[in-house]
Amino acid sequence: MVSGDESEPRTAKKGNPLHFVRNAHPASRDRRQAGVLRPLARPDGMKAYIGVDADSGRVHTVVVTPANVADVTQAHALLHGEETDVFGDAGYQGVEKRAENQDKAVRWHVAMRPGKRRALPATPWGELMERIEQTKARIRAKAEHAFHVVKNLFGHKKTRYRGLEKNRKQLFTLFGLANLVLARRWLLVPDGGIAPVAP
Q: What would the pLDDT profile of 151-199 be if each residue is shown by its tens digit?
């Protein structure tokens, strides 16, 4: 199961960039105006993609990219190699046709685009397709539980650092802790104690 989520870029105040750089203005030919302050175009947005086990709902893979990277380009990086079926949202349309996924022995179950889904006819075939899409969404929802823990329980809704590397390391930690939160029902026994470790 694969999923992606986008984090908002950091800004100091509403609409203001975080920092400025002193550069020569390209339209200026006057040497006295060579040091014009202008904002530094620095994209701080990022996306986190996760691979989630469909049975347990635990995250096994985290990939972080800039926000302008398409979801479908990261699908191969989210697989650990033992999957038979992979479920993805509509952002992964055409994933089975990409060169890096040709050698994968998996069945891709990608959600239908929302516009196509709304346009399904009110026939038995259309109702069957709607039920299939609901089943896909029910399975894919397990990936969203990890994002719920990271964004809502841990409060990580915006990027904290500049650069992907520090944010990537923080997300690895947060999704590792999210696995513990999601696995608490297997770790705790009903009387509040700790479950014994299986041999």
A: 888 888 877 787 788 888 988 999 899 988 888 877 776 666 666 665 5
**Chain-centroid distance, C-alpha 73:** 12
Q: Which two tokens stand for residue 76?
A: 């191969």
Determine the Cα–Cα distance for residues 114 and 80; give it in Å rounded to an integer. 29
Burial per residue of 113-142, b for 16 or more beta-carbon CB atoms within 10 angstroms, e otherwise: eeeeeeeeeeeeeeeebeeebeebeeebeb
So what's the pLDDT on residue 105? 84
**CATH numbers and ranges of domains, the chain:** 42-181 (3.30.420)
Q: Answer yes or no: are the C-beta atoms of 129 and 120 closer than 8 Å.
A: yes
Question: What residues contact residue 176 under an 8 Å CB cut-off, 6+ apart?
Answer: 59
94 SS3 class: coil
Q: Residue 20 corresponds to which amino acid?
A: F
The partner residues of 64 in beta bridges, in order of sequence, read: 48
